[in-house]
Amino acid sequence: MESAKQLLNYISKHVNLTEKEELVLLSKVNHRKYLKGQYLVQQGDVCKYTSFVISGCTKMFYMDNEGQEHIAMFSIKDWWSSDLGSFITQTPADYNIQCIENTEVFQFPHHTQEELFKEIPKLERFFRIILEKALVASQKRIIRNFSLTAKERYLNFKNLYPTIEQRVPQYMIASYLGITKEFLSKIKSKLILEQ
Amino acid sequence: MESAKQLLNYISKHVNLTEKEELVLLSKVNHRKYLKGQYLVQQGDVCKYTSFVISGCTKMFYMDNEGQEHIAMFSIKDWWSSDLGSFITQTPADYNIQCIENTEVFQFPHHTQEELFKEIPKLERFFRIILEKALVASQKRIIRNFSLTAKERYLNFKNLYPTIEQRVPQYMIASYLGITKEFLSKIKSKLILEQ
DNA sequence: CGCGACGTTGATTTGCCTCAACGATTGTGG
DNA sequence: CCACAATCGTTGAGGCAAATCAACGTCGCG
Questions:
Q1: Residue A1 has what pLDDT?
Q2: What is the pLDDT of residues A112-142, one digit of tens each?
Q3: Does any strand C atom come closer than 7 Å to the Cβ of A183?
Q4: Closest Cα to residue A108, out of A12, A20, A27, A19?
Q5: Distance from CA of A66 to the nearest CA of B (A)
Q6: Which nucleotides of D are covered by protein (CB under 7 A)?
Q7: Does B184 contact strand C, using a CB cutoff of 7 Å?
Q8: Residues A136-146: pLDDT tens digits?
Q9: Structural domains of chain A, count
Q10: Which of A50, A167, B136, B189 yields a CA-CA distance of 20 to 30 A from A112?
């Protein structure tokens, strides 16, 4: 499927745009390809775009004072990738977003957002719906992090995101789960012994 | 301030409604008072309303298989309180929402939401903005939980929500922070010794 | 008064981290 | 085609943050 079609198809699952509206939309987003290792956003920069991932994979992470990387989320096909806090306030980002594969995206620029919503009010609705879902997922994750052990969190992750578990290096999964790579390794070897 | 004014005042910080729109809005929300201990939502019920808190305080919590309570959030004046996951899909709630003080709210019923957005499209925008902020806060909390120690999380909480820290029992704050009441007690006594 | 709700303190245990050494695999330049 | 470094994962010894369990203190209130 052509990438523009993929974006429109995704949007059509939530709101129905006319052909004219679709053209307006496409005229206001940028299509862009990144290589593995490149950054969409760097900590300290202002996040100018909200990116919709067509293919590939990104990680969003926070680098703490000790230089440790904490992965907040991965984004693959049909997911969004941006430092939302930085994007909406147009202030320096707390997070980095880096491609861990060659990645193709559509970017919604901040400076055209108001125009876009004015010309296509349905998109206001679209983003409300997307945000609702994202917030629900985020709140569930908070609870999981408190009420589950590391082993349970790993099994839950495997279950929720089997595709990601297969293509992402283990040390990044460990970071996402909030544990060390060594400990994840031990969890996995125990799991193998158990069954 | 009269409670309806408080709601309208809060909304006016994000979108400008006409007087007529304000009247429509007020005709579609319920004003309601709860006593300390009463539930807005119980785990297993469908969450029919999104509630805007006028006064008092609620806690949203998840009860795990061991019967342990995990507090996901507190809501005070000018905050929202609902199990969003249950509300948007109209399926049984994962969380309980209980008043820990006598609490006054305005409730936005799910069954009038579509009408409301149709009659007042600006509200679609309003909720998009609210959701953006909530999502940013939620993502920040995930990172904090991973990158900070219990002591740092407690200090951060005190700093972010001084009002809540003062009026809520310690064992609930411990639950929100993801630690035991005993350990929070030890953190606090150490902090007193230190300065 | 006595009971229930809340908070404290200490002894012990445990889940997970740190550090350090050691494979396995891949890629790259000579 | 080999050497060797880089990247990623594994394993073990020891340590620490936080949980668990149990006992006790305190306050408000019927």
A1: 67
A2: 999 999 999 999 999 999 999 999 999 999 9
A3: yes
A4: A27
A5: 10
A6: 7-13, 17-22
A7: yes
A8: 999 999 989 98
A9: 1
A10: B136
Phi and psi at A121, nearest 5°, equal -60, -25
- Which nucleotide shows the minimum CA-to-C1' distance to residue B172? C6
- Name the CA dihedral angle for B47, B49, B54, B58, rounded to a multiple of 10 degrees: 0
Domain range for B23:
3-120
Give chain A's residues under pLDDT 70: 1, 195
Low-confidence ranges of chain B (pLDDT < 50): none
Question: Is residue B166 assigned to a domain?
Answer: no
A9 touching B (Cβ < 8 Å): no
Among all residues of chain B, which has the CA nearest to that of A117? B125
> Measured between alpha carbons, how far is A42 from A96 in angstroms, rounded to an integer?
4
Query: Is A36 a member of any domain?
Result: yes
| Closest residue in chain A to residue B139, using alpha carbons only | A138
User: Which of B43, B59, B135, B153 would best serve as a mutation to test chain A binding (most A beta carbons within 10 A)?
Assistant: B135
Please check whether residue A178 lies inside any domain of the structure: no
Does the distance separating the beta carbons of A70 and B136 come in below 8 Å?
no
Q: What is the CA B76 to C1' D21 distance in angstroms?
A: 35
pLDDT at B195: 67
Bridge partners of B33, per DSSP, are: B104
Q: Is the pTM of this model over 0.90?
A: yes
Residue A140 falls inside a structural domain: no
